[in-house]
Amino acid sequence: MKPLFLLIEILIILGVTIKTIEAEKHSKKQKGRNVTTQVSVNKVKQYLSNILEQRKPINVISKKENLLENKKNHHKLRQKGIRNKDLWKRNKDHLKKQAKNNFTDEGDQLFNMGIQILQQSKSQKQKAEAYIFFAKAADMGNLKAMEKMADALLFGNFGMQNITAAIQLYESLAKEGSYKAQNALGFLSSYGIGMEYNQAKALIYYTFGSAGGSMMSQMILGYRYLSGINVLQNCEVALSHYKKVADYIADKLEKSEGIPVEKVRLTERPENLSSNSEILDWDIYQYYKFLAERGDVQIQVSLGQLHLIGRKGLDQDYYKALYYFLKAAKAGSANAMAFIGKMYLEGNAAAPQNNATAFKYFSMAASKGNAIGLHGLGLLYFYGKGVPVNYAEALKYFQKAAEKGWPNAQFQLGFMYYSGSGVWKDYKLAFKYFYLASQSGQPLAIYYLAEMYATGTGVLRSCRTAVELYKGVCELGHWAEKFLTAYFAYKNGDIDSSLVQYALLAEMGYEVAQSNSAFILESKKAKILEKEKMYPMALLLWNRAAIQGNAFARVKIGDYHYYGYGTKKDYQTAATHYSIAANKYHSAQAMFNLGYMYEHGLGITKDIHLARRLYDMAAQTSPDAHIPVFLALMKLETVHLLQDILLFNFTMRWKWMTLDNTIGPCWDLFVIGLIVAVLIFLLRNRYG
Q1: Mean pLDDT in residue range 117-143
Q2: What GO cellular-component annotations does this UniProt entry give (predicted)?
Q3: What's the rounded Cα separation, in Å, for the pair 11 and 4?
Q4: Which of 98, 424, 449, 503 is 20 to 30 A distant from 82 in Cα terms?
């Protein structure tokens, strides 16, 4: 806990002291720093004193030599004096600059040490120590370290959220031209978190951020132009922004640097959320480990895959991945052999790059007819790794693997026909294979499909389709890691930290993040926004999620208009949204709500028969709707029966008078009680 407390103390100091760093200001503080810094400062002082000492005898000699000709050369001496002053000033400036450079170098070293700790650390305690180095580096004026500290303060890394301090840092960084700071300020302005809610200002920040090279700003602008959020809807501009980000992501994917994305929906039931399929619970992981040690080959391969790429909330661990694959391979698993080949082909800490070993394991897997092994051999022949380049052999292996449904092989076939590598260019065949691979979510296949739609290559040009495909690729960026950190923050009760992270992803166009942000705002547990702003902001986010095809969000919009949350009550608009959710997405909840509105004539014409039909459809669509529908139908039928009886009362009033005299004035309650008793009797007989 000591590093954490130290970090908090540093952050408090940091929020007050970080200003424009001057070398002279910090020269007094050097005594408290490490030995190497003291040495560098002493060298600077020695250099300065030496320069001054050298200049003294020069001035004396100069004066003696020119004493006799003082009057004659007065003008020349004056000019020399000016030159000497200029020289002294230049030397002084040079020394200041050198001292500042030494100070900057130390800041860079501290920042790099922090990065190294972050990359190598696995525990949160070790990662927290990295931020101590960032804080020290930031105090020395290191801009990258200041960006790290500002992000930590904004997103609440290690429980140190301080949005006011983060904004101060970002504003200081923005003046220095930091595109990350401009993107962050745009985000905060767009939500009104710690700043004035100002969409126009947010757009300016995003524009400057994208011009400076921020991929996140590019993605946000792409989404805004695609959806027409505070700008005129323009598909071509959206395409331009998304393509830049997609090109960056595709380059990473080609180097096998893809980011696995686990998107947990907070709108799921709490009991499902605690054991969400996207995240592997620790107890289940321990059980899987037990099974793997007992010799369960399938579990061994599964754990190897999870550790290989870091899925289901597990850290990427090449050593564990190789351990499980080797155990499974010894038991004869072709998949395990193929994955070992993949590890040696790509190279990592546990399995250094070795084409011969990769060829060996791919061949072993391919001999068993394994698609991954066949694809691996195809890659070796295609790129000439450990074997001569042979496109014919590569094509043969890719075709065999593609026939078995392996999406990476389908992509490679598409790429060969797209680029004309070893075959004649054939855009129709390329499109066919790219499409097949994209159906399994192969990201590079989706990227090349987007390229084809964007340029009209081999297919009719479609800006909208290209943008949607590019958007899917962009959502695989490293920023998607925030889905995991946001989920764990929510699970640990750090609502504000979770909300900020989900809100940023929502701004970038992630539908899951939009619904999660709206869900958190709706709960009113967050403290970073005023309560009166939460429902309107939640409604805005539900609306964005609904436009992207979220049926639950569409029902929520109907609820907000029905109850008047964040907007005025509007039954007609509520009925419209329920109708969309019922007809387009077959939502049982929407059918039930719409049935209720038809039953009571709320915002639409009263229609008992249509209400009955909608209730029945809801029960058929979802088993969970059976009990609510049963109760609603019983109520509807009872009320309908009473209405018929009351109508009959107008024509046969004397009979009701007899009933009043015989049974009493509360005969209607007696009838309802009788109906309930009959229902209970029937239910008991049915389940008894």
Answers
A1: 80
A2: cilium; endoplasmic reticulum membrane; nuclear speck
A3: 10
A4: 98
Closest-CA residue to 580 (of 613, 603, 547, 610): 547
- pLDDT 10s digits, 444-453: 999 999 999 9
The CA-CA-CA angle for residues 28, 33, 34, to 5°, reads 140
Q: Which of 339, 362, 363 is nearest to 351 (CA)?
A: 339
Query: By the 8 A CB rule, do 173 and 181 touch?
Result: yes
- Which run of H or of E encompasses 531? helix 531-547
Neighbours of 586 (CB within 10 A): 15
Q: How far apart are CA 658 and CA 150, in angstroms?
A: 82
Question: How far, rounded to the nearest angstrom, does the alpha carbon of residue 78 sit from its chain's CA centroid?
Answer: 67
pTM of this structure: 0.77
User: What does the DSSP 8-state code read for residue 548?
Assistant: T
Cα dihedral 141, 142, 144, 148 sign: negative
- What tokens were used for 472? 């899917």
Given a contact cutoff of 8 angstroms between Cβ atoms, the answer to whether 182 and 154 are in contact is no
pLDDT digits (tens, 9 = 90+) for 11-46: 443 443 333 333 333 433 333 333 333 333 343 333
> Of 407, 439, 433, 408, which Cα lies nearest the Cα of 419?
433
DSSP 453: H
Give the residue from 314, 323, 337 showing the smallest Cα distance to 293: 323
Instruction: State how far the Cα of 44 lies from the Cα of 597, in Å rounded to an integer.
Output: 82
Give the Cβ contact number of residue 393 at 10 Å. 17
In the predicted model, what is the mean pLDDT of residues 176-192? 95
Find the helix or strand (DSSP H, E) in which 54 lies.
Answer: helix 35-65
CB 377 within 8 A of CB 341: no
* Tokens read off for 192: 């009104």
d(CA 205, CA 195): 13
**Alpha-carbon span 140 to 344, nearest angstrom:** 42
Burial of 507: CB neighbours in 10 Å, binned 0-12, 13-18, 19+: buried
* Helices and strands (DSSP H and E) totals, the chain: 34, 0
C-beta atoms surrounding 656 within 10 Å: 15
Three-class SS state of 270: helix
Distance CA(160)–CA(144), nearest Å, equals 19
Pair 537, 191: CB distance under 8 Å: yes
Per DSSP, the three-state class of 277 is: coil
The residue behind tokens 């686990």 is: 262
Terminal alpha carbon distance of the chain: 61
C-alpha distances (whole Å) from 146 to each of 207, 211, 302 are 22, 21, 40
Q: Residue 603: what are its φ and ψ, rounded to 5°?
A: 80, -10
What distance in Å separates the CA atoms of residue 239 and residue 134, rounded to the nearest whole number? 37
Query: Six-digit token pair at 515?
Result: 């619904």
| HSE toward the beta carbon, residue 473, CA cutoff 13 A | 34
- Residues 535, 568: contact at Cβ < 8 Å? no
Quote the mean pLDDT of the chain: 80
Environment class of residue 613 by beta-carbon count within 10 Å: exposed (0-12), middle (13-18) or buried (19+)?
Answer: middle
* DSSP calls for 106-171: HHHHHHHHHHHHHHH--SHHHHHHHHHHHHHHHHTT-HHHHHHHHHHHHHTGGG---HHHHHHHHH
Q: How many residues does the chain have?
A: 688
